[in-house]
Design goal:
By secondary structure, the protein is an alpha+beta fold. It has 4 domains: about 170 residues, Nucleotide cyclase, GGDEF domain (Alpha-Beta Plaits, 2-Layer Sandwich); about 140 residues, 3-Layer(aba) Sandwich (Rossmann fold), CATH 3.40.50.10070; about 120 residues, Tetratricopeptide repeat domain (Serine Threonine Protein Phosphatase 5, Tetratricopeptide repeat, Alpha Horseshoe), CATH 1.25.40; about 130 residues, Serine Threonine Protein Phosphatase 5, Tetratricopeptide repeat (Alpha Horseshoe), CATH 1.25.40. Helices cover about 50% and strands about 15% of the residues. This is Guanylate cyclase domain-containing protein. InterPro entries: A/G_cyclase, Adenylyl/Guanylyl_Cyclase_3/4, Nucleotide_cyclase, TPR-like_helical_dom_sf.
């Protein structure tokens, strides 16, 4: 870009790289360190950055400022940088061996030919200062563009204070690794045999339009809505398939990560005022095409309440997989792309850890229901936000939030009686906030009759099953929920409730694995801490259990076993609650 042109504001991933103890190395071995650093920087420019689509903005002699299009490319480059450092070591006694610490943030910055500017660059630098030698510390904005267990393994550090930044910043530490042993794989659990589904399918966002257009997500969302009406298919959540949409992965790898047999993908191209939709269904493991077609449409048709294009794609896909009819559904999509962008923003913010982002999600969804009061999905999501507000400890008035949530689900049902999320959330309100298991079960039955592939309905079902003391059913419900959305942004929440289901089933090893994985990304979730403490006691690990008990008391000084026992819903199995109470007493929880 010529310097006389105005710089542009862009959303970029900023990776700041610092050399640990560079001042000491420079003072003791100046010439050798400078020579080593120059060779290292040259290799980074020639080998590493082109492979990850990055740009060296500047090298300062003891660090680098790197610019990337997205966070998962920047994170991959950061992990590769650590390997590069090892190549430049001269052995155990090397006097100029150096280690790196890095910070990664995604933000709107001003970009020109020579530099990048903005507060986002400063935040990335402060995160680098927080890192230990060899560490990468990232922001929630960067974390949201990555997938835990695929790009790396993440550890929630909570909110920290950084130099020259007034407000606390949420920080996440990165551990290198691909799919770790604790990552649940659908193929390890015979879910298809449990639920009667004959096949599974993931719908990838359709490409072809501009990067900031949500049309591809909207088409995939509508196709999924139609496919999910079939009780003969297990349909993967769009939140999970979207997490892999921009990755250079084979169909076999995507199928492995999502635990599905088939992939449905396509493109949407602008041809004058019309839209040309191409779609193909493949066998994930082999890439073999089972069905493909091209359909011409208009943007108005794609946004219509009963869009014929996505309905036809779903129909043809099911015929190719199952060779039998698919029950159709009439959905009520939002009537503009701007509204759909707001919906995606609200969903994304609702699943972030910082409370300010979570509260912002409520503002976005409130604004959206004001704009489109006849659309069901925003109302259902706003009800879900109300429930999560209580479970996250951000609201003390449970009764008021329950009234608000039930009002939102009622409005969602009035807009679309076939919306499954509304009765699913309503079931959780009855279970968790109103303490009414019978009422919860009737709502969940309704949700699963409408949409047998609704992940949250199965997740809330595992909670109801656990309260009733049916551990085996709770565990099966939890497994199905996770298999339907294996890379869900709410994965810590899924894992925490699944840990309790495993505990109810007496599967202590699974309970510990799931609880620890949940807490690694949401470290202060009290129900998960309690579940892990119970599992530790029952495995005979009393010292570890008492450490967890101390954390529970520190986070919730008012907790007592008396209130815990009295807080069970009506109809809950007394024997299960007593079993847990005895374990919590052994973990040091007060009576």
């Amino acid at each position: 870009m010529p310097l006389d042109q105005a710089p542009r504001r862009r959303r970029r991933a900023i990776l700041v790289v610092d050399v640990v103890e560079s001042v000491r190395l420079m003072r003791l071995h100046e010439d050798a360190f400078i020579g080593r650093w120059r060779r290292f920087t040259r290799e980074v420019q020639v080998e590493l950055l082109p492979a990850h689509g990055g740009r060296l903005v500047k090298s300062l002699g003891d660090g680098m400022l790197l610019d990337f299009r997205d966070a998962h490319a920047a994170l991959a480059a950061g992990l590769a940088l650590r390997d590069f450092v090892e190549r430049h070591r001269g052995g155990a006694q090397d006097p100029v061996a150096f280690a790196l610490r890095m910070g990664l943030h995604v933000a709107e910055v001003i970009v020109d030919e020579l530099d990048i500017y903005g507060s986002g660059v400063n935040l990335a630098a402060r995160l680098a200062e927080l890192s230990r030698p060899g560490d990468i510390t990232i922001s929630p904005e960067a974390r949201d563009e990555c997938v835990d267990g695929l790009d790396a393994v993440f550890e929630d550090l909570g909110e920290v204070y950084l130099k020259h930044i007034d407000e606390p910043v949420h920080a996440i530490r990165v551990h290198a690794g691909s799919l770790h042993p604790g990552m649940i794989q659908s193929r390890a659990w015979p879910v298809d045999r449990l639920d009667g589904a004959l096949a599974s399918v993931a719908v990838m966002p359709f490409g072809g339009l501009t990067a900031d257009s949500p049309m591809g997500e909207l088409i995939a969302d509508s196709v999924i809505a139609h496919l999910s009406r079939s009780d003969s298919l297990r349909v993967i959540s769009r939140l999970s398939s979207s997490a892999l949409a921009t990755r250079s992965l084979s169909s076999g790898k995507i199928g492995e990560l999502l635990g599905c047999d088939h992939l449905l993908a396509g493109r949407c191209l602008a041809v004058g005022s019309r839209r040309l939709i191409t779609a193909e269904l493949t066998i994930a493991a082999t890439g073999e095409v089972l069905w493909a077609d091209r359909i011409e449409s208009s943007e108005e048709e794609l946004l219509s309440p009963d869009d014929p294009v996505t309905r036809e794609i779903a129909w043809q896909a099911v015929r190719a997989i199952l060779e039998r009819s698919l029950r159709h559904a009439v959905n009520t999509p939002l009537p503009s792309l701007q509204d759909f962008s707001l919906l995606l923003s609200g969903m994304s913010l609702m699943h972030r850890s910082p409370p300010r982002d979570f509260e912002r999600a409520g503002e976005v969804l409130q604004h959206l229901v004001g704009r489109r009061p006849r659309a069901a999905q925003p109302w259902a999501l706003l009800a879900q936000w109300r429930v999560l507000r209580v479970t996250r400890g951000l609201c003390d008035d449970t009764a008021a939030e329950a009234r608000h949530a039930l009002d939102h689900t009622r409005r969602a049902v009035e807009c679309d009686a076939e919306n499954a999320l509304a009765p699913a959330v309503e079931g959780f309100v009855h279970c968790h906030l109103l303490k009414d298991l019978a009422g919860a079960q009737s709502r969940l039955d309704r949700a699963l009759a409408i949409k047998p592939n609704e992940p949250l309905a199965w997740l809330f079902q595992c909670v109801v099953d656990g309260f009733r003391g049916d551990g085996e059913r709770a565990w099966n419900s939890a497994r199905r929920a996770i298999s339907l959305s294996p890379l869900d942004p709410m994965r810590p929440y899924f894992d925490g409730l699944a840990a309790s289901a495993a505990l109810a089933a007496g599967l202590l090893d699974d309970a510990v694995m799931l609880a620890e994985r949940s807490l690694r990304l949401n470290r202060n979730h009290l129900p998960t801490l309690r579940a892990l403490a119970i599992a530790r006691v029952e495995r005979g690990e009393l010292a570890l259990a008492r450490e967890l008990g101390s954390r529970v008391v520190a986070l919730d000084p008012d907790f007592s076993l008396r209130t815990y026992m009295s807080g069970a819903p009506r109809g809950a199995a007394a024997s299960t609650r007593e079993r847990y109470s005895m374990a919590l007493r052994a973990a040091g929880l007060p009576p």
